[in-house]
Amino acid sequence: QVQLVESGGGLVQAGGSLRLSCVASGLTFSSYAMGWFRQAPGQERELVGTIYRSGSTYYADSVKGRFTISRDNAKNTVYLQMNSLKLEDTAIYYCTARPQSAGWAYWGQGTQVTVSS
């Protein structure tokens, strides 16, 4: 049974930083691309960024230069370092896993990030 468990969310002031973690179990972690999505109230879920098996990354324009995704295959963990947070970054953040040549197959339960002024 695949499980993705996020942690690290919370309340932070604008301009601050948070680091989210996602621990995966029940899958061969190194074989999966890992992603972070977010969903703000009343809005659709959007892709924040992806880290591929090779370690290369992709970021949405809205977070490029502020957010960094990394992975530790030995710990089955993917991270999302968020710096220079803005009010519009407030959302529930979800970790997700994608096997090769397939869609996002597994999702975590989400962790709330709230940025205050």
Task: Write a concise synopsis of the structure shown.
By secondary structure, the chain is mainly β.
Largest sheet features = 7 strands, mixed
Tell me the overall shape: globular
Order of helices and strands: EEEEEEEEEEE
Q: Indicate the structural class.
A: mainly beta
How far apart are the termini? 40 Å
Note the beta-strand portion.
Answer: over 45%
Helix content: under 10%
Mean pLDDT equals: 97
How many DSSP-defined strands?
11
**Mind telling me the C-alpha Rg?**
13 Å
Q: Give the low-confidence spans.
A: none
Number of helices: 0
Describe the structure.
- The protein is mainly β and 117 residues long.
- The chain is 0% helix and 52% strand.
- The radius of gyration is 13 Å and the shape is globular.
- The mean pLDDT is 97.
Keywords:
117 residues; seven-stranded mixed beta sheet; four-stranded antiparallel beta sheet; globular
Q: How does the SSE layout of this entry go?
A:
Layout lengths: L2 E5 L2 E4 L4 E8 L7 E7 L6 E6 L5 E3 L7 E6 L4 E6 L8 E8 L7 E2 L3 E6 L1
Parallel strand pairs: 2-11
Antiparallel strand pairs: 1-3, 3-8, 4-5, 4-9, 5-6, 7-8, 9-10, 9-11
